[in-house]
Amino acid sequence: MIGFSISKKVLKSACKRNRAKRRVREAYRQVKTTFDDVFRQEAAMHRWYALVYVINPLALTAGFDEIAASIKESLLKAGKKFGSK
After folding, report:
1. Closest CA to 48 of 25, 85, 82, 3
2. d(CA 45, CA 39)
3. Backbone phi, psi, residue 41, to 5°
């Protein structure tokens, strides 16, 4: 289970909030389809219950590759911290 959240305080315009969420969702979808078994074991994804991404307003101006790289990095960090030890 995964969720994406962005506060009204961060971006006032609903259009901009939705665009930022769409960009991050698509980057996550792209990263998820490229997962291989080694990455799944490194991130220990089978043990996670829920992930929630709190989106930064820089998601509107950052490049798509930057967003995808930071998602992959966050998954690896979460796997190291909360995965099986």
Report:
1. 82
2. 9
3. -75, -40
Domain residue spans of the chain:
2-82
Q: Which 3 state secondary structure label does DSSP give 63?
A: coil
Q: Give CA angle at 5 (67, 29), nearest 5°.
A: 45
* Beta-strand runs (E) in the chain: 2-5, 51-54
**How much is the pLDDT for 54?**
92
pTM: predicted TM-score of the whole model, two decimal places: 0.81
Residue pLDDT, tens place only, 23-66: 999 999 998 888 776 676 666 666 666 788 999 999 999 999 99
Q: Which residues contact 76 (CB under 8 A, 6 or more apart)?
A: 42, 43
Q: Which residue has the tokens 């074991």?
A: 41
Query: Comparing C-alpha atoms, which of 15, 31, 19, 43 is closest to residue 70?
Result: 31
